Amino acid sequence: MIDEKFVQSQKKLIEQKISELTNEISQARQYDDLGNSDEDKTQEYEELEGKNAISRSAQKELEDLKCALERIDEGKYGICAQCGQLIETGRLKGYLGVIYCSTHARQS
Ligand SMILES: [Zn+2]
Known about the structure:
Elements lengths: L3 H31 L6 H33 L15 H6 L7 H4 L3
Helix pairs in contact: 1-2
The structure holds zinc ion.
């Protein structure tokens, strides 16, 4: 059985990370709205591309974290969604949104 204290500390970190990512994404969206000037189109485009890339990976991480949060509420955090085995603590610490063991991570 996974340590409840560990789960609760992970939950705090996840909630914190979710609000950080939400901010990051909304800032990236604001930037998108500003990108309508005709000057410096190329440079602006490159910056936008960079911002969009950040936004996309942030979006993905946000989904993972929300999923992990749901699993905490269901009492399934730290358990592989595929095979039901305990996920290594090191993996959970390395990436908060992980819901698969190392065997099934690549298939997700
Ligand atoms: Zn698994």
